[in-house]
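Re-running 1,4-dihydroxy-2-naphthoate octaprenyltransferase to confirm reproducibility after the cluster update. Everything else is unchanged from the original entry.
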Amino acid sequence: MKPYARLTWPLFLELIRLPAKLASLLPFLFGVSYAALSGPLNWGNTLVYLIGQMSIAVFVTGFNNVQDFYKAKDVEYRRTQNIIGRAHLNPRHILALMGAFLTVACLAGLVLVWRTNLSLLVIGGAGIFVAIFYTFGPVPLSRMPCGELLAGLCEGFGTIFIAYFVNQVQPPATLTLSWSQFSGYLDLAVTLRLLVVALPIVILDGTVMFADNICDLDQDVKNQRFTLPYYLTKAQALRIYPWLPVAAFLALVVGVAAGLLPWPLVLTLLTGPIVARNTRGFLAKQSKMATFGLAIHTLLLVAAAEVGLLWVSLWLRSGVIFGNLID
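Result of re-run:
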């Protein structure tokens, strides 16, 4: 039997899809920046959450590659397209490495629970459940038409909510336990406000998954993965696709008009021509290698613009950009 290849840095970065990790980082930065609008940041909590968030992001991609390798029905896909088979990597070693990243994420989460309150254990636990069972188990979530919703809510809203949560003196959710009872509290007003301000990133994060599933549609059917584009049909999915960035921009306008986002964020609309060009490029050709990156580029562009403009808003509000951020 041919010996397994060594996991080099280039292979590791391909395994975890490094550009996609930026898609995890920017919602974190947005949540932290939005939290800075309401008061000084807790830099200790922010650093711990950054470690946990990026660890779980690496785990999800690597673990998904291993599970796709094991569950593949198409031998050609397993041998030539999945990185585990194509690079002849040892799937057990990759699984162990991803387990280490999951352990780091869980430890970081427990530290944050200790530094905040028990409600974060429930919130983070739900995210880790989705991360594991997205491709694991007898009926993985990735084989259902809910990947886009889960990607948007977990990677988009969930990341932003927790980044905001860990930087508040009075978090928007609490959970207390005693020997005879427990009590919970959720500030619905704050939660709904965060959902509205996060909605552009939530939509565009889901759009990345939508584009991924459109590109992989034929291969997914061979491997018995029936995602949303399968149920919609490719033609209908492509009719819906260009309206998703439009919906994200409309959500942004609503957030600014409602006073939930600072007015400079309306300048994010200036990215519109580039977003439109990316959308046209994807509609012209749906290819994982050639055009899927355009969906990621759109998410990164809009999210980066929002983060940058939040810092501009901080500067306009405080006069000195770091004046509001010293804990």
